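To close the chapter, one final illustration. This time we ask the reader to focus less on the individual chains and more on the assembly as a whole: which components sit near each other, and how the overall shape emerges from the parts.
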Amino acid sequence: MDRDPTLRSRRSFLDMVIGLGFTGLAAAVLYPVARYLIPPVRSGPGTRSVVLDPDDPAQVDPETRIFVFGSRPGILVKGPGGQWKAFSAVCTHLSCTVRFQAESNQIWCPCHNGLFDLNGRNIPGTPPPRPLEEFEVHEREDESGKKTLLVSKGRSA
Amino acid sequence: MRTSGVVLALWLTFLFPVVVRAESNGCIGCHIDDTMEERARIPAERFKDGVHAKAGLGCIDCHGGRNSDEFMQAHSRKNGFRGKIKSADQPEVCGNCHDDPSRMAGFGAADLATGQADRFNRSVHGSISPVEGFETPACTSCHGTHGFAAPSDESSPVHPARVPETCARCHSDLTYMRAFTSARVRVDQLIEYRTSIHGQRLAKGDEKVAVCSSCHADHLILPASDSRSSVHPLNVAETCGRCHSDPEQMKGYEISAPDGTSLPLPTDQQSRYTESVHYAAMTENGDLSAPTCNDCHGNHGATPPEVRAVATVCAQCHSRPAELFTPSEIRKDLDTAGFPECATCHGHHRIVPPGDALLAGIARGETVAGWTPLPAYRADAQGFLDGILGLKARIDAVEETVAAAENYGMDLTKARLELTRARDHLIRARVMVHAFDPAQMMAELQGTREEPGGLIYAERAQNLAELAFGERAYRRKGMGFALAIIACLMVALIMKIRRMESRKAQPG
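The assembled structure is written out below.
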């Protein structure tokens, strides 16, 4: 029988390496499974939809009403009927970022004074040729009763 | 004596008129009589001096009936008498002759145009639905009744000198116009027209100038919203060009130059306009709100804008550049030198797309209108150009880095957002040129304490892209490390297998 101590320690080292390797492999397989099973705490700024708290200045700028929608800016305003309305904040004239203008209660582009009404329609006589792209807004309430808005790209958009 | 006096008086009263009537033209004979009431007499008086009477036509050619001295014969419906011709029937009645070239030739009027009634029927006037209490427009609304005269005759309501008033009889009457159109219909065209160069010259007796029918057509008048109309936005330039591109028509008219001298009125406006960015916006992009002649010059009140009013005219649409240009020093200098504000650099009629080349022109001391900018302005222009091109180059370079990072699968959403902001400032910097103020330009490019400029945003995007590259390097190292572990595992496994096999091979 094998009584050589160096041989025995070499064998136990080999077993240890194999054990560690398999543990690593198992972790590599189980990690994505675990990530899949645990739901994300809060969806971050996505490219198709975003969850917003309209009163949180970190999410929606209180002055310009701009929020981040993927890699592009969006704009969240209260429409003429008091309902929330969200649009792409990319001006249809030369793609500048539009903003809410409190004094005129309109959406205004600072580059060439383009104007849109609160339904996102371009005001005739100002440079933008088309209305702003509109997003869908759904109001929802979380467990604590806090109201948030789910802003998503419409099917037509 | 007494008896014969009574007989004479009776004869004069009853029989003499009959004798006179018997000797004259039936309708006219009675209607022209002093005993006739005015509404029956005046038509006859007018008719005998009109072109129709001279052409040998009689009352019955339009009114029907018989040319008889006997009242019942003359006015019998059986004989086709229709009395006053209703508006709705006029195009047909007048068209019987005026739409028939051979008939017109028969009256010795072969050179007269025909088809007026047909054109009228297809016009906005010809398709008005009747409204109770209001007479719809028809032939006589403009041409008058009975005493028809050729348009070249000063007595005609459609003589050029009288056209504006003739049209205004209805078009300046709000009550009448509202009966047929919306409550928002405008009725100030005549007032505007009188302020126009056309109207002012017409008042001085110049009959060559445009009147209503010159632009709106005469019989086939269509609303401006109809694409076939001569005043539809796509057709306005051609309509104005009919006179303004004709050197013969424009002969003798002058316009004042920046130095106060008079120049002959040019005739190349239409051809230059068709090469402009405005014309392209309208014809190629289908943007009918793009300006044509009347949007800058006015339509009824057409006049060339005064030098100092150019920016006001352009500001109707280009409000942001105007906001920056109006209070600027450069505007004051241009006004003092008598140069046409915006048009000094952008030109007029043939306005080309604006670009950095325009700024380069000013830096070289060249402008479209021939104004030579002061050296200070030239230096500013060069500074603006360098700044704008610098920001553009920086954005392009950062864009490349960001795109390269994205190519490696990195998420650069935030960098893209910063780049969008940088581009906003590039566009705003190009508009900012109109203020001609280095401090304001610097705020767009470099930024201020309150708000970062385009270069700062570009830098932020660059930093994010570099972070992404760092992340990529880190992940690569991680990947290498993982691969090394797997390789070690494989080697260890092979060694283990060999050992187990060699143990099996040993006996016992």
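Residues 49-153 of chain A form a domain with the Rieske Iron-sulfur Protein fold (CATH 2.102.10.10). The radius of gyration of chain A is 27 Å. With these observations in hand, you are ready for the problems at the end of the chapter.
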